[in-house]
# Entry
Amino acid sequence: MATSRVPAAVDALLAILGAAPGLDGVLVLDGPPWQNFTGAERIYVGWQPSESPAVSLSQDFNGAGARTRDEEFTINCYAEVWSGGTDMQPRRSRVFELIAVVEEAVRATDAAPEAPTLNGTVLWAHITSGDLAQEQTTDGARAGVPFAVSCRARI
# Structure
């Protein structure tokens, strides 16, 4: 019996994003950065540049009899786009293009009817929140969006 659908859902989200055609050339990373990456575009699954947990979850019995439980959880993610220049507008536009690809990747289509279930690991998943962060550094402009993929599962 599974105690949680979190590990399977995170793995499925990583697989879906890794195969998303709109993310060609974008680094899709499992968890926090572990080195200085040279790629200008990245999506982190299970990490945000704050004190947020990788995943927040809660469970409760779904009815009398205590045979199954409902689980709700949020996978915290982060998309960022860097450049060596100082023009923020292209970075801001591009990071929202990445978020749009993520959102499309977890929507049902004829080609991917199981996408909202993260390939059957949850009942549903969707992007529920995000914030735009912008920064100018000596290395250039950065736009980032911490975002949440919220899920519901039955265990």
Summary: The chain has a mean pLDDT of 90. The helical segments are 6-19, 88-105.
